[in-house]
Amino acid sequence: MRFIRLSKERENMLARIYKHSKYHRVRQRAHCILLSNDGYTISDLKKIFNADLTTIYNWFNEWESKSLVGLYDRKGKGRKPKLSPEMKEKIREWAKKYSESRICELIEDKFGISVSTKTVHRVLKAFR
After folding, report:
1. d(CA 80, CA 62)
2. Overall pTM surpassing 0.90 (yes/no)
3. What is the distance between the alpha carbons of residues 35 and 3, in angstroms, rounded to a whole number?
4. Any idea what DSSP says for residue 128?
5. Residue 2: inside a domain, yes or no?
6. Cα–Cα distance measured from residue 23 to residue 71, given in angstroms and rounded to the nearest whole number
7. What is the span of the domain harbouring residue 121?
8. Distance, CA of 128 to CA of 123 (rounded, Å)
9. pLDDT (tens digit, 9 = 90+) per residue, 103-114?
10. What is the pLDDT of residues 54-101, one digit of tens each?
11. Contact criterion met (CB below 8 Å) for 48 and 39
12. Number of domains into which the chain is organized
């Protein structure tokens, strides 16, 4: 059995975060830590949050190692962009002369990256 024990001050702070944070995930993690402090088991928390055992343990580990910062998502999660800002500028220049399918070929020739016409379309749409 693993439980998180909180001081009154931390408990009040987490309760405030749970009620007022604009981020759903942060509120959820704060709630989980509060429930653990109240004596809920990991099995109970899994059911309440419909989360995997590993997820609950990760929330606990982040809380214990980083405290409040551990409630928030780290920067840089998710897939990294295929195209750099310089590549996007080049695509913008090419758009004045070529079609989207031709731009895909140019990107593959010049940068060695395969992209779809939809990707090129999204890049160009972002410039508009």
Report:
1. 23
2. no
3. 9
4. -
5. no
6. 10
7. 85-127
8. 9
9. 999 999 999 999
10. 999 999 999 999 999 999 998 887 888 899 999 999 999 999 999 999
11. no
12. 2
